[in-house]
Amino acid sequence: MVDVLQKIVVPPAYDENGKLYYPTIMPASNNNHTAVFYKVPDRVIPVIFLPGVMGSNLKTLGTNPSDRLWRLDDASTAAGTDQDPWRLGWLTKGAKDRRTLLDPTKVEVDPEGKVDGNLADIGFTSRLERGWGEAGYMSYGEFLPWLQRSLHDFYQIHEGDRVKLIDMTLDLEMGEAPLTKGEVGLSYKYLFPVHVMGYNWLDSIESSADALLNRINSIISDYNSRSNKCEKVILVTHSMGGLVARYCSELKGGNSKILGIVHGVLPAIGATSAYRRMKAGMEYDIKSLKGKATAEVAGGNGAEMTAVLSQSPGPLQLLPGTEYGMGWLKIKDDDKTHSLPKQDPYSEIYTVRGKWWSLCEDYLIEPKNTSLDKARMDKDWLAYTNIVNQKVKPIIENLKGRYHKVTHSFYGGAIPTHGDLIWQAKTPVMDSWLYKGRERFPLDGRMNSKPGEEVFTTRTVATPLGGKGWASGVYQEYKIIAPTESELGDGTVPLRSSQISERYLRSRARLNVAHEPAYSHPDAQRYTLWAIVKIAQKIKETALRYPDA
């Protein structure tokens, strides 16, 4: 009797260190067996995700275990309501506590945030070890697992998310052709472990870029030490994370370690929302109770925001630079409009002291200075202007026109968004009639309220009058008007900033996404996966290419 040849498929397995092996136990009763081993790729292209501003979890420096200072696991941890009794939560934290707790020199990234399915990705180290706990679960808790499943779906090689993209048109504004079967097939010859790098978003983008470069080198070295082959990474960014990536790539020498970058809702040249936050608190959708609560947690008024942002270069680096253009701050008084800046936003808006419309109101910098001691205010103002001149202006201006040569980008283009920031005057009818014909000078006006009394979207101003008459001025109310359909964006970043010039991009997609939840949108997820596969084709230009590729 002739034995029939039998094939035994041996599935791959991984030891506790993530190393691949094949557990084989062949039957002793029959020698006519053949073991079949399916090769698993040993060439790795790590994908590193960088969150947006406020999207990285933070803890007080040196605390172990974490004190969950800024933890975005869910609504309760974000508000702080389930934390230690002495910390009543951000909803009840005023300017004094915020300035003390959210000091960029006294916090660090918290890696212990919520992570689902920590050991779900067979063959890779745990999600916590890959940094997933550093990103706010509220914003990225669904996107990250989806992205990893889509990039590690060898069990669905004929029907996975990547395969579904073959020949699909994504209605790109500009860019490369649809994915081919060959391009998707190439991607299955590599492993794409998804990593996350949270960063101290209160600190300078430059410091975060240094941390990113160190993380990239560490990740590449770690995979090579595990008998994998790894040479470059792909970066996927959200909002401010894109500025960190660009600075790392183009100004810190990280370019050679980065295969390509996918940007989502990037404030490429700044956003006037950064000005609005400092003057009036976090913007939000007035129709959304959740949006209002989120804004209150982040900082619901100008006093809370100024106390934190005046000492924090990172968020200030989101302000419009010279590349944004001139005249975006408009003060409208009837039919006359005053526009700033004329030449330089730093000297004309950001470091102007004592004007009701200037970025920083000096008496809001240090909330503990309730007596408004002038010497203390002078010292605080000097510290603030040093940050703007030494850490904010150079970073913004040095980033002008600097992008990785393989960059893809999507942005939101359907929501009214501040492009210009407009203060609209309201003058009492009687005063308008009495002083008709006399010129008003709102830029020289003075606040007519007590210091710190008006910290939302309204300022009451005593405006000087020109010409002859018994009155030297008139009282006006100036209010930040809501954006209209005339200028769109994602609710935070306007088109003029997020619609990156074609000369810097391989592809660009305009999507109906809002800023903070951008990566929750299916279209954003689909485009990101498409862009990653496109970037992966550049591996042919590296030592990790296959001979037949």
Annotation field: number of helices: 17
C-alpha geometry? elongated
> What structural class do the secondary elements suggest?
alpha/beta
CATH fold field value of the domain at 144-196 and 209-269 and 400-418 and 490-541 = Rossmann fold
How many E-type strands? 22
Query: How would you state the average pLDDT, rounded?
Result: 92
Question: Uncertain spans, ≥5 residues at pLDDT below 50?
Answer: 84-88
Please list the strands of the largest sheet in the order they lie side by side. Answer: 9-6-11-12-15-22
Which sheet architecture does the biggest sheet show? 6 strands, parallel
CATH architecture of the domain at 144-196 and 209-269 and 400-418 and 490-541: 3-Layer(aba) Sandwich
Q: What percentage of residues falls in helices of 4 or more residues?
A: 25-40%
Brief summary:
The two termini are 46 Å apart. By secondary structure, this protein is α/β, with parallel strands linked by helices.
Describe this entry's structure for a reader.
With 549 residues, this protein is of the alpha/beta class. Among the domains are: 6-40, no CATH class; 144-196 and 209-269 and 400-418 and 490-541, Rossmann fold; 278-325 and 342-397, no CATH class; 421-480, no CATH class. Helix content is 28%, strand content 17%. It has 17 helices and 22 strands. The protein has helices at residues 75-79, 95-101, 137-140, 143-151, 161-164, 181-187, 205-225, 240-251, 273-280, 289-299, 302-309, 313-316, 345-350, 374-398, 429-434, 495-498, 522-536, and strands at 6-10, 13-14, 20-21, 33-37, 43-44, 47-50, 58-60, 107-109, 194-196, 229-230, 233-238, 258-264, 329-333, 336-340, 407-412, 415-416, 421-426, 446-447, 458-464, 473-480, 488-489, 507-511. The strands form seven sheets. It has a six-stranded parallel β-sheet, sandwiched between helices. A six-stranded mixed β-sheet has the order 14-13-17-20-19-18. Strands 1-4 form a two-stranded parallel ribbon. A hairpin with a 5-residue loop joins strand 2 (13-14) and strand 3. It is elongated and about 110 Å long. The relative contact order is 0.13. The model is unreliable at 84-88 (pLDDT under 50).
